[in-house]
Amino acid sequence: MRFSASLIAMILAPACLAADFAVSVGAANSFAFSPTQIFPAPGDTVTFTFLSRNHSATTTTFDTPCPPPDGGTADGFDTGFLSATTGQTPSATVTIVDTAPHFVACAQAAGAHCRMGMVMAINPTAEQPFAQFLANAVA
Q1: Is the N end or the C end of the chain the one with fewer CB atoms within 10 Å?
Q2: CA proximity to 48, closest of 73, 81, 74, 18
Q3: Domain membership flag for residue 4
Q4: For the whole model, what pTM was predicted?
Q5: 108-115 helix and 130-138 helix, angle to the nearest 10 degrees
Q6: Number of domains within the chain
Q7: Residue 36 is part of which domain span?
Q8: What string of pLDDT tens digits covers the 139 residues of the chain?
Q9: What is the CATH number of the domain that holds 36?
Q10: 106 and 56 in contact (C-beta within 8 Å)?
């Protein structure tokens, strides 16, 4: 019986060790994600909480972020538009599957929110830093 309990503990350990990264979307009626960059490990989750207006969290490309592609990039995600205009604060949670950089933007208004700097980075690198991604978005 002791062996079985140990085996179960080893199998469940990765799920128990996973972290959740909370990201606010549109806090204080802003066009922003907060924080703007996070560094989760595979298996960790990111919970986007939508606090104002009608926004999305959609993966996009580093070089030409705005507008994000419909449905997000092939290796990414798209929360779809989630409205916080009725006093509710909807959320969406995604699981990170790798350590590759992923770039996120709001797809609202054909990319207008993205061009206003409503972007964030997951696992940015020295070669693809958040500051350059932001500059690409607002260019």
Answers
A1: N
A2: 81
A3: no
A4: 0.88
A5: 120
A6: 1
A7: 14-138
A8: 444 444 344 444 455 689 999 999 999 999 999 999 999 999 999 999 999 999 999 999 999 999 999 999 999 999 999 999 999 999 999 999 999 999 999 999 999 999 999 999 999 999 999 999 999 999 9
A9: 2.60.40.420
A10: yes
